[in-house]
Automatic annotation (TrEMBL):
InterPro entries: DUF1329. It comes from the Bacteria. It comes from Aequoribacter fuscus. This is Uncharacterized protein. Pfam families: DUF1329.
Length: 435
């Protein structure tokens, strides 16, 4: 079964290398990172190579363990593509250089001091630094993305891997605004009006089906990690806005396989996890040039937008090519003992600091879910995203490996022609939209 899917994590470095070789490579990567963030892999796989049940053991060092398990079971195959760099917005790169060495960790996890803009900790993570994981987490939080973006077409598909059926489809509108630490849209670096002291806000509104139309979600990410989390949901049946308690961020969102805390890799406070840097390696990940994908990997939606397909068992895996990437491995362990997870293991792209693959373990320590993000370079995407200058997410999949179920998301996200209104990210607007 051939599903050209991409995952949210990177794999293991191919082959065994001597300590001297590893040190030399690390030194070269660190020096290179100071200029443009790109990390061309040392390992090359011929583009077009199909990795499936019959040959996956040959590539085991380059395949994430959870991805390996589904390939070995014959539930999916992946096709390799060429390495391409994912350049970051020049304003983001410039800010990183300008403020390099200024950002510091405070005395407690979640305390960040003197951060202005750009990548907080651009240096290569040090495996001997006991707080290296926390620095990687902050880089993931403040990865580059457009200051304002809209997803006019966001399709959620609930799928059964047991009988290869789609059980439910929900169509949404989505919008994201960064109120501070802005790099791509005036005003920069912060909106003049930011009374809630926000870093960013995310808004979702259900458009179909009719029975839950206008159900809405609003989440805030604060500049101060110590501030209480804030999230609200508008339920159509109740016709009112409800504040979400912190514990409900780990519930299934609208009956899907995704928690609100899973959004954007991790949508919670840095201080609510213990972060451990597990080292860096080369791994196959679902990154590609959207315009170069074969037509067979894509499909037209009813509004004529072109989106990536999902294939493999249950239609749970993105139909894209995978390339060898340098990734940082990061473990997040909840501080709260009543949290439903034991840990998350992120495979974070070293160039973009986007978590492409995530392994999620339940409280007893069993592998529960596999998260995958399929992403393209914006310069090889649709024309309206030329000014994006970064990574564009085309699809997400969260696979429940225990329940044999998945939720897949198809995105068509762009930078809006007109500025988004800050007041659309308010509970007042949620009430108005729900009427």
């Amino acid at each position: 079964m051939h599903a050209h899917f991409k995952l949210v994590t990177h794999g293991l470095v191919a082959g065994f290398v001597s300590a001297l070789t590893a040190l030399s490579a690390l030194t070269a990567l660190t020096a290179h990172a100071q200029s443009d963030f790109s990390y061309p892999p040392k390992t090359n796989i011929e583009p077009g190579t199909v990795i499936n049940q019959s040959n996956v053991d040959t590539f085991v060092e380059l395949v994430d363990p959870a991805v390996y398990s589904v390939i070995a079971a014959g539930e999916v195959s992946i096709t390799t593509g060429p390495y391409i760099a994912f350049p970051q917005h020049p304003n983001y790169v410039g800010a990183t250089e300008q403020y390099k060495g200024q950002t510091q960790l405070g005395p407690e996890t979640g305390d960040l001091m003197n951060y202005q803009n750009g990548r907080p900790f651009p240096e290569w993570p040090d495996i001997n630094d006991p707080r290296a994981g926390e620095k990687v987490a902050w880089n993931m939080r403040y990865t580059y993305g457009p200051d304002e973006s809209e997803t006019q077409s966001l399709s959620w598909h609930y799928k059964s891997m047991k009988n290869d059926t789609t059980e439910r489809t929900i169509e949404m509108y989505g919008a994201l605004m960064r109120f501070s630490h802005r790099h791509s849209r005036a005003p920069m670096p912060e909106l003049e009006q930011n009374p809630a002291n926000l870093y960013s806000a995310l808004y979702l509104q259900v458009q179909r089906p009719q029975d839950i139309r206008n159900t809405q979600l609003l989440t805030y990410t604060k500049k101060n990690d110590g501030d209480a989390e804030q999230a609200w949901i508008y339920l159509t049946a109740q016709r009112r806005v409800k504040r979400l308690p912190t514990g409900q961020k780990t519930d299934a969102f609208l009956g899907s396989d995704i928690m609100i805390e899973d959004f954007m890799g991790y949508n919670g406070r840095i201080r609510d996890m213990r972060w451990e840097y597990l080292g860096s390696k080369e791994l196959l990940a679902p990154m590609y040039a959207f315009n170069a994908l074969p037509a067979s990997y894509k499909e037209k939606k009813d509004d004529e937008l072109t989106v990536i397909k999902f294939e493999g068992k249950g239609g749970c895996f993105p139909s894209v090519t995978w390339q060898v990437r340098t990734v940082h491995m990061l473990k997040a362990t909840p501080v709260n003992p009543s949290h439903p997870l034991k840990e998350r293991i992120f495979s974070i792209d070293a160039e973009t600091y986007v978590p492409l693959l995530t392994r999620i373990y339940d409280r007893p320590g069993n592998l529960w879910k596999l998260g995958m993000v399929a992403a393209s370079d914006s310069s090889q995407h649709e024309a309206k995203n030329e000014d994006w200058q970064g990574l564009v997410t085309d699809g997400v999949s969260m696979v429940d490996l225990q329940a044999r179920h998945c939720t897949t998301l198809q995105f068509r996200t762009h930078m809006p022609a007109e500025d988004l209104r800050p007041n659309m990210f308010t509970t007042q607007q949620m009430r108005a939209a729900g009427r």
